[in-house]
C-alpha cells in the first residue's frame, strides 16, 4: 500500500489528504528510500544536476512580530540588534557579484525602520549596479502598495513562508499576526508578478500529520516558484525554548514530498538542516532540493541573526562559504549553477529555454 502510494505520487504529482496522512504515518526505512529515489529522479527530470547558489544578506534583526519560536522576536530583550546601512548592503552585493552570485536574497525581520522609500532605493541601486542579477526580498508582511512599488523598482522574487496551513496552529504560534492576512499577502505577491516563495517548518509543537498534509495541499493550490522547508529548532530565549525540535529525517520526507507534488518548484537545502546534521544539506539535495543560500552578510553581524541557536557558518568569510558549499554540492554528484536560477514556471511564462 505505502509503495503504491509513493509510486502514484511520482506518476500523478498529487495525493488526497487522507493518502498523504497515511503515507506520513506509515513510512519505514525501505519506503523512505523509495520516496527519496523518486524525488531525486523528479528533480533530475526537471532541473538536471543544477543546484542554484543565492547570496543571502541578513540586513536587520529587528522585528515587530512576536512569534513564539523565533529568536529575533520583539520580546527577546537579550539580543543585540543591528541594521545594515545602505552602503553596507551594497558592499555585500558587490562582494557577492565578484564571487559569481547572480541572485541576492535580502532578508530581515519585519523592520519598518526600512521604509518604503528606503527599500525602493536599495532595490533600484542594486538593479542599477548589477542589471543581470535577480533581487529576492524576504522582509515579511507589507501593504499591497509597498509590494507593488518594490516590484516596479526591480525586485524579482519575494519569499514569505506561510508557516503552517493550520489556522489553529498558526494563531497559537503567531499572537501578533493574522492567518488570513498571511495567505492574502502570498496571493497579492503572485498577482503583482513576483516569483513567490512559500514554505513551512517541520516538527512544531502540536503539529500533526494532518497539518503537514494540509501544508502540501496548500502549496499545491498556491503553486509557488519556491518552497522553503526547514526543521523547527528551539531557541532558549523564546516560550518554546524547552520544546523538542523537528528532526532531519522528518524534514527530508517533507522536502521529498514537496518535490513530487510540485516538480517545477525550486527547493532550498536550508542552513538549518546543516545545523541538525553535518551532512544535512547534502541529504536534502539528494532528496530533491536544488537551491543553497550561502551567507554574504558581514561576519560581525551573522551570529546576531539568530532565528534559532547553534546556527552554522556564522564566522566564515563569503569566499570560504562559497567554496565550502560548492564542495558539498559536488560531493552529491550535482553541479553548481551561479546564474539567476529562475523557476521553471517563470521560465515558461517568459519564454526562456530551460
From TrEMBL:
Protein source organism: Natronincola peptidivorans
Keyword set, alphabetical order: 4Fe-4S, Iron, Iron-sulfur, Metal-binding, S-adenosyl-L-methionine
Cofactor note: Binds 1 [4Fe-4S] cluster. The cluster is coordinated with 3 cysteines and an exchangeable S-adenosyl-L-methionine.
GO MF term list: 4 iron, 4 sulfur cluster binding; metal ion binding; transferase activity
Cofactor(s) needed: [2Fe-2S] cluster; [4Fe-4S] cluster
Name of the protein in its database record: Biotin synthase
Annotated positions binding [4Fe-4S] cluster: 63, 67, 70
Span of domain Radical SAM core: 49-270
Positions that bind S-adenosyl-L-methionine: 163, 182
Binding-site residues, (3R)-3-methyl-D-ornithine: 138
InterPro entries: Aldolase_TIM, BATS_dom, Elp3/MiaA/NifB-like_rSAM, FeFe-hyd_HydE_rSAM, HydE/PylB-like, rSAM, rSAM_sf
Single Gene Ontology BP annotation: water-soluble vitamin biosynthetic process
Any one Pfam family match given in the protein's UniProt record, by short name: Radical_SAM
Amino acid at each position: 500500500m505505502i509503495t503504491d502510494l509513493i509510486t502514484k505520487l511520482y506518476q500523478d504529482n498529487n495525493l488526497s489528504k487522507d493518502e498523504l496522512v497515511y503515507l506520513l504515518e506509515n513510512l519505514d526505512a525501505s519506503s523512505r528510500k523509495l520516496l527519496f529515489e523518486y524525488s531525486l529522479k523528479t528533480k533530475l527530470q526537471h532541473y538536471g544536476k543544477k543546484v542554484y547558489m543565492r547570496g543571502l544578506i541578513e540586513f536587520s534583526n529587528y522585528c515587530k512580530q512576536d512569534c513564539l519560536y523565533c529568536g529575533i522576536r520583539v520580546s527577546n530583550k537579550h539580543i543585540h540588534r543591528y541594521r545594515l546601512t545602505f552602503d553596507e548592503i551594497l558592499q555585500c552585493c558587490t562582494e557577492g557579484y565578484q564571487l559569481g552570485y547572480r541572485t541576492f536574497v535580502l532578508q530581515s525581520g519585519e523592520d519598518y525602520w526600512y521604509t518604503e522609500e528606503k527599500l525602493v532605493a536599495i532595490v533600484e541601486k542594486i538593479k542599477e549596479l548589477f542589471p543581470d542579477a535577480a533581487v529576492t526580498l524576504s522582509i515579511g508582511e507589507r501593504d499591497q502598495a509597498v509590494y507593488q512599488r518594490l516590484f516596479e523598482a526591480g525586485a524579482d522574487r519575494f519569499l514569505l513562508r506561510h508557516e503552517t496551513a493550520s489556522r489553529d496552529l498558526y494563531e497559537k504560534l503567531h499572537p501578533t499576526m493574522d492567518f488570513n492576512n498571511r495567505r492574502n499577502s502570498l496571493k497579492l505577491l503572485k498577482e503583482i508578478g513576483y516569483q513567490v516563495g512559500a514554505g513551512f517548518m517541520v516538527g512544531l509543537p502540536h503539529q500533526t500529520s494532518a497539518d503537514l498534509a494540509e501544508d502540501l495541499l496548500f502549496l499545491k493550490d498556491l503553486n509557488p516558484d519556491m518552497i522553503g522547508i526547514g526543521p523547527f529548532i528551539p531557541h532558549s530565549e523564546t516560550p518554546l525554548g524547552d520544546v523538542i525540535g523537528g528532526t532531519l529525517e522528518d524534514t527530508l520526507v517533507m522536502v521529498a514530498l514537496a518535490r513530487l507534488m510540485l516538480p517545477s518548484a525550486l527547493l532550498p537545502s536550508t542552513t538549518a538542516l546543516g545545523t541538525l546534521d553535518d551532512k544535512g544539506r547534502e541529504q536534502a539535495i539528494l532528496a530533491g532540493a536544488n537551491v543553497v543560500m550561502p551567507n554574504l552578510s558581514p561576519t560581525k553581524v551573522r551570529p546576531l541573526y539568530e532565528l534559532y541557536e547553534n546556527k552554522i557558518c556564522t564566522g566564515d568569510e563569503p569566499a570560504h562559504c562559497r567554496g565550502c558549499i560548492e564542495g558539498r554540492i559536488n560531493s552529491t554528484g550535482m553541479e553548481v549553477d551561479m546564474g539567476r536560477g529562475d523557476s521553471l514556471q517563470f521560465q515558461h511564462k517568459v519564454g526562456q529555454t530551460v
